[in-house]
Amino acid sequence: MKDSTHKIIILLLIFWGVILISTADASRIKELAKLEGVRSNQLIGYGLVVGLNGTGDSASTRFTIQSLVSMMERLGVTVNPAMVKVDNVAAVVVTAELPAFARAGNSIDVTVSSIGDADSLVGGTLLMTPLKAADGKYYAVAQGALLVNALSFGGKAAKAQKNHPTVGRIPGGAMVEREVSFVFGEKNELNYRLNDSDFTTVSRMSAVVNQHFGGSPAHSLDAGQMQVMIPEAYQDRVVDFVAELEHLTVIPDTLARIVVNEKTGTIVMGEGVRISTVAVSHGNLSLVISEQSNVSQPNAFSDGETVVTPQTDIGVVEDEGNLVVLQQGVSIGDVAAALNAIGATPRDLIAIFQAVKAAGALYADLVVL
After folding, report:
1. Helices and strands (DSSP H and E) totals, the chain
2. Torsion angle defined by CA atoms of residues 139, 144, 146 and 147, in that order, rounded to the nearest 10 degrees
3. Which residues are CB-neighbours of 276 under 8 A, at least 6 positions away?
4. Both 188 and 129 in a single domain?
5. Whether residue 315 is found in the same domain as residue 364
6. For 63-104, what is each residue's pLDDT tens digit?
7. Domain count, the chain
8. What does the alpha-carbon distance between residue 44 and residue 107 come to, in Å, rounded to a whole number?
9. Does residue 319 share a domain with residue 217?
10. Of 153, 181, 290, 340, which is most buried with the most CB atoms under 10 A?
11. What is this structure's pTM?
12. Considering the chain, what percentage of its residues have pLDDT values greater than 90?
């Protein structure tokens, strides 16, 4: 009896292990695709930040003075622009993202960036700033105290700065005043746009949806779009249908790709990178040039002249290169181990990958940033 129980436990562990392995690389549909029409909108506005401790715009920033004078006149205060100082004021651009289904009264975060010559926005307060979208209509109003995770102080000869003091954020600093008109679920079909277009991935998505809901409600329109017909059982529960659909998991297909950044020496290789049999040898060539001047001076109280003779020394050093054979179809781990064996630096690896790609032995896209 005890042996049979142990066998059942072992079989269950193997079963769950297989399930975990099969779903380890799976992603939910909501991470792979977005529902058409459900999107955010960009907002922008121009405003003033006040309360700065002498770190605002200088007098040469004329538009800050004009904006301050105009604001004060709207508040019923008449001032002479020539007498206005803006050391404690900074002109800023306020940006925000209006999320989908945002309703009037909701709060959204805003980012405040200086556009003048202010030194710091630390301690400042943003005055009421209307935010408009690309259609020219105002959708939100921002105001509040800035959060600037930075500092900047110093004198004429030295200055200390941490992080970026001329950009700040106001969490929940904008109030939504206008809603974006969008009626959800008025059609019988839903279109999903893939974040990364791929025929294999969209085909797998359609198969998973059809298997889960039964029948053929989903079909692929192209490599980047899947159309889903809403079943009759969910006609009055579209939100529940979308929530259930987006929770389904799919194993996405990825391209074999190597991304290199020559500026930083960064190399990222995808899992599907493969190469054919090729021999790789790489050696560094160093050229060192040093110059110095030989000065010959005449004896004291003589009529001779000082002679300066330039001297140039050139040294060439070439490191030995080890020849390594990379077998066809090796995995990314084997490629990394073989290239590390020849002592290649990241910049050397970039040159090696470019040469292997030129030789036609690299079965992957090589992207150089």
Report:
1. 7, 23
2. -90
3. 328, 329, 360, 361, 363
4. no
5. yes
6. 998 998 898 888 888 888 888 888 899 999 999 999 988 899
7. 3
8. 15
9. no
10. 153
11. 0.68
12. 30
